[in-house]
From TrEMBL:
Residues given in the record as substrate binding sites: 56, 80, 102, 159
EC number: 2.7.1.71
Organism: Kaistia terrae
Function per UniProt: Catalyzes the specific phosphorylation of the 3-hydroxyl group of shikimic acid using ATP as a cosubstrate.
Signal sequence extent: none
UniProt name for this protein: Shikimate kinase
Family according to the record: Belongs to the shikimate kinase family.
Amino acid sequence: MIESIVPETESTEPEAALIAGLGSRAIVLVGLMGAGKTSVGKRIATKLHLPFIDADAEIEKAADATIPEIFAQHGEAYFRDGERRVIRRLLDGNPKVLATGGGAFMNEETRSAILEGAVSIWLRAELDVLMARVRKRANRPLLQTADPEGTMRQLMTDRYPVYALANVHILSRDVTHEVVADETIEALLAFLAAEGSAQES
């Protein structure tokens, strides 16, 4: 669901520099379930006066079904195909903050589209933080196993090397999402400044 965020005040100088550095690119958050992509993404969007979109919500709207229902009725491959098409559509050349599902960045085509048309942020979290967060919700299809913690460990092993291809890495830990959002904006500014310097040289 797209949440239009209307600026209440003029952008500060760092915010203006960040928006200018982004150009037509989106900010895309990647990482495992429980990393805080939606919560942090909403706060970043508010601070930068950009629209926020949750890719999972868009997929559910397009399918007229919840993600657990899509997995149960059609399987993961069907879901991933829909996810790929939705994210490709959302990377439309308009700046925004986009939170993706945990498996989105694992798809080579989706990952290439994100790396080419967006600035990607990996919210990295340790196992204890992830498990504490995901236990609060029972609608995690990939964790409907006899050993959810073992499944999460395996997901971390499989996915973290791929998430590491993201442009910016942020540690999502046991602090407020507001703090993580501020740290992400600072890291984005540093990344865009370095990118601009490299282009000038």
